[in-house]
Amino acid sequence: MDTKSIPLHPSEVTPKDQYLSRRDFLKQAGIVTAGAALLAACGTSADETPVTPVPQNLSADQETSSLFKELTAEESILSYNNYYEFSTDKERVAKLSKDFQSSPWTIEVGGLVNNPQNFSIEEILGNFSIEERIYRMRCVEAWSMVIPWNGFPLAELLKAVDPTPDAKFVRFETLADPDQMPGLSNGLYPWPYQEGLRLDEALNDLTILSTGLYGETLASQNGAPIRLVVPWKYGFKSIKSIVKIELTAEQPSTFWEDIAPKEYGFYANVNPEIDHPRWSQASERRIGELQRRDTLPFNGYAEEVAHLYEGMDPATLY
Ligand code: MTE
């Protein structure tokens, strides 16, 4: 595939031992330790260390190998999480979610479709061919990671339910089980967590449903057993532990837009030129690195997705 997005096809999947040796390399280089030290200093909003620009305008091949080299250590992906159903403290999510029951699991897919279906997670794993995609993930809080996801295009699942011509948006919902998710006792948040995409965004090849990362089944803290990944948007769009997908005619409400519409819009496309009202989005802190990087328009995926927004005012896409 001749894109900068780096979807890898099954033939290109990196064997796990290579990941593990990459991880060992990071450990030996002390990068994991440096990353861990930074985490404690971060908090939930942007920090303001000086920006060191990274090389840009790489060719697709250069970009592929450069993204592979940038992989975030598995330990960091598993231990620094936003998952408010468990905790607002990123470093407590893994512990609080360790007994989360992600099996049995069913996703209900319906709304404006000709063929509504309930899929068990086993049916999903059996019916769709899982590939690997190494994507940047950029949180709205101005930190980022590079994650080797395992998953399949959301478009495949949508094809199976056959949207009607009236379907224009896709709405997603996370499980809300107060017995398992202590964060739900915080009544200030509009549970369940919900998200949405325009149908053409949902059908874009970069948009995947993920069932694993680093070749392992998805951990609870990362959204087991299945979560969305939309790499050109801020991370809050990538909703975890999905139980419901619904095709709609109207733009759905989303969790963060309901809470603070001026801070977190429906589109949430990564844009270094449009600041969050409380911090700059021009640069980001890559977990495991010491210096900041410039944030890329559409998180580096402009070639694949900028056309979706032609003629729209960028200010409305934040
Ligand atoms: N999905 C649900 N259900 N609840 C959440 O709190 N947090 C979002 C997103 N999906 C969140 C969620 C945010 S803000 C980010 S940055 C990513 O998940 C973080 O994903 P990760 O913990 O796997 O890195």
Short description:
The protein has 318 residues and is α+β, with helices and mostly antiparallel strands. The protein has helices at residues 16-28, 31-42, 60-69, 74-79, 93-96, 121-127, 154-161, 199-203, 255-259, 302-305; strands at residues 7-8, 106-111, 117-120, 131-138, 143-153, 169-174, 194-198, 208-213, 216-217, 227-229, 242-248, 283-286, 293-294. The strands form two sheets. Strands 1, 4, 5, 8, 9, 10, 12 and 13 form an eight-stranded mixed sheet that branches. It has a five-stranded mixed sheet with strand order 3-2-11-6-7.
Task: Give a description of the structure.
The chain has helices at residues 16-28, 31-42, 60-69, 74-79, 93-96, 121-127, 154-161, 199-203, 255-259, 302-305; strands at 7-8, 106-111, 117-120, 131-138, 143-153, 169-174, 194-198, 208-213, 216-217, 227-229, 242-248, 283-286, 293-294. It has 318 residues and is an alpha+beta fold. The protein has one domain: Alpha-Beta Complex (Sulfite Oxidase, Chain A, domain 2), CATH 3.90.420. Strands 1, 4, 5, 8, 9, 10, 12 and 13 form an eight-stranded mixed sheet that branches. Strand 4 and strand 5 form a beta hairpin. The longest helix is centred in the first third of the chain and has 13 residues, at 16-28. The radius of gyration is 19 Å and the shape is globular. The model is unreliable at 1-15 and 25-57 (pLDDT under 50).
